[in-house]
Every structure is written in structure tokens, then in C-alpha cells.
Amino acid sequence: MNSIEHVNFIKAPVSEVYRALVSETGLSAIWTPKLKVKPEEGHINEFDFDEKEITRMKVIQLTENERIEWKCVTSDPEWVDTSIIFELSEKDGLTQVILKHTDWNAITPFYRWCNYNWALFLLRLKKYCENLIK
Questions:
Q1: Pick from 36, 22, 128, 100: nearest CA to 65
Q2: Which domain holds residue 110?
Q3: Which CATH number characterizes residue 78's domain?
Q4: Closest alpha carbon to 62 in 8, 108, 12, 23
Q5: Is 125 within the bounds of a domain?
Q6: Contact 20/130 with Cβ under 8 angstroms?
Q7: Is there a contact between 83 and 104 (Cβ–Cβ < 8 Å)?
Q8: How far is CA 1 from its chain centroid?
């Protein structure tokens, strides 16, 4: 299995970064404005990217200010059964965000495109949490 992994450092408290990643307000600003999310384990979050299928992610784990894990249940076939994990830690006024998108079956053009877009996602998260975008 293949994984995408990225890291970014954000000048914001870990609690603010966590909140951005689990709330409709945060995720609509950095990912897609068409969504239905709840910060609740077992809930199926929905993300609409104006494609033929709505992306649905089951919330597997929420450890406040430390870890978020989703499992893709509906989306592009290459995403189904993959996991998206955010690992958070704070030190000296910086929050480290490690993003992992795991369990890809193969490295394909779509995998590479998603890899690029996850980097952009982390950049938007940084700008949002550092109050550069709203």
C-alpha cells in the first residue's frame, strides 16, 4: 500500500488548528464550502466538490488537539477505503500538522494529483489559522 505524507508548521495554538479541521466553519474555508460535518466519532462527514459523487468520510478517531482520522467510504474509487490522518502537536508557539493519506492501492496520476492538492490544503489551513484568509 502507498501513502501520501506532508508536514506543515502553523503559528497558531493547536486547539485552533484542531477546531479548523473538525468544524464546518474551518473545513468550508480551507476545503469546500459544500459540506456536512460533525466532530463525532462514527459520524459520516460529507464533502461536495461538484463531482459526480459526494465524498463521504467516516470519523474513526478524534483525540482533541492530537489526532483526527477519517476513513473514506464513498468517493472516487481510488479514495474508497483509504484513510486520512491528521497528527497535531504544539511546541514553542508552533503547531506541527502531519497529514497522512494512507492505503492507496497504486501510485497513479490521480494519486500524484491528490498529493499536490494535499500540500495546497495544508497551505490553506496555515493561512486560515494564521488569520490570513477567512
A1: 22
A2: 2-129
A3: 3.30.530.20
A4: 23
A5: yes
A6: no
A7: no
A8: 19
Task: Kindly report, residue by residue over 44-103, the tens digit of the pLDDT.
Answer: 999 999 888 899 999 999 999 999 999 999 999 999 999 999 999 999 989 999 999 999
Q: What is the DSSP letter of 129?
A: H
**Grid cell in block for residue 123:** 497551505
- Give the residue-averaged pLDDT of 113-132: 95
Q: For residue 91, give the C-alpha cell.
A: 511546541
Question: For residue 27, how far is the Cα from the chain centroid?
Answer: 8
Distance between CA atoms of 25 and 131, rounded to whole angstroms? 13
The residue behind cell 459526480 is: 52
What is the distance between the terminal CA atoms of the chain, rounded to a whole angstrom? 36
pLDDT at 134 over 70: no
pLDDT value for 96: 98
**What angle in degrees, to the nearest 10, is found between the helix axes of 14-22 and 109-129?**
130
Strand 55-63 with 94-104, pairing = unpaired
